[in-house]
Amino acid sequence: MSLIRSGRATSLATSLAAALALVPALAGPAAAAPDKAAIFGIELNDPGVVGGRKARPDEVRRLALVTEELRKALVAGGAVEDVDVSPQAVEITKQAPLFKCEGCAATIAKTLGANLAVNGYVEKGSNQIFNLYVLISDTATGKVVRGGQVVIRADTDDTWAHAMRWVVKNRLLAEPLPNRS
Q: Cβ atoms within 10 A of the Cβ of 121, count?
């Protein structure tokens, strides 16, 4: 007896079609591609010095450390795709400090093809107290879509890195970034 004549082929085909139709539902909704973000280096603001100053070597190292912590935390969580900012190094240097240039970070990020600009700074309060600020701006509008701040109460690599991880987890990514569900 043939499968086609017995109707088994029809019921087998129907069952297979129904199973294949369920595959997308079981996989869940399609994840949106992460936003492209230009993550700029964290800068130093020392308001105790008129006209500002260059960061000391130990501060430069810590600023690089917190910048890398920021980058790793945002990329690892799938929140953003990091865009290389080095093609705009001359413009970044020209506009620095980015936290004072009134939206230039978003403009630079937009020229790099990024949807978001991420920048921040550490403000020195004393030798042991610092404030860490991080902002995420939409490059299309220049508006800040997320921001966070935390006080660092000791001048060590661990406290600076911990502060950055805390800001990312509890302020920047406490909820999904705008236009993402």
A: 21
